[in-house]
Amino acid sequence: DLKARLHRPIVLVGMMGVGKSTIGRKLAAVLKLPFADADDAIVEAAKMPITDIFDQFGEDHFRDGERRVIARLLESGPSVIATGGGAFVQPETAELIRARGIPIWLDSDADTLVERVGRNSKRPLLRGGNVREIVTRMKAEREPFYAKASIKVMSDAGPHNATVNRILEALE
Ligand code: S3P
What we know:
Elements: H1 2-5, E1 10-13, H2 20-31, E2 35-37, H3 38-46, H4 50-57, H5 59-73, E3 80-82, H6 91-100, E4 102-107, H7 110-117, H8 131-146, E5 151-154, H9 160-171
Parallel strand pairs: 1-3, 1-4, 2-3, 4-5
Helix pairs in contact: 2-9, 3-5, 4-5, 5-6, 7-8
């Protein structure tokens, strides 16, 4: 079966708001695998919220910590890992994920992303701007990076279970 054939972590990549954490948690439950959220692990390691890391130390410092945390999570054997939207855009981090994991790009249209991120102030890159504009521009800029994932799955508006099933089919 699928689980027995998985020797590496499944790593969900893609834009903010696409549902990486929610879908990752459900996928892990179905496969009976451990789940890890890289953003949560960063917050735990830094002992401060992501906005504070950005404000006090800058994005480069955050990306550094993000890479180290993801490198550690990738060592835990078969599992499901949800990453922050910028992780797979960082060349070194993406390299690690491709070498030691199975990257899956979750994609959806900009409208769905905008609706899902809402007015979430926990996302430093969405503060102080028009969310629709930022998300649309960022999605266009990042697509070439996300496209380097081995598998692409659409995460449309609607129940996340459908997306989980699509991932399972893609992995079969
Ligand atoms: C970021 C996405 C966030 C978080 C940080 C930066 C990004 O994660 O890592 O705010 O650069 O897209 P989510 O994708 O879970 O929102």
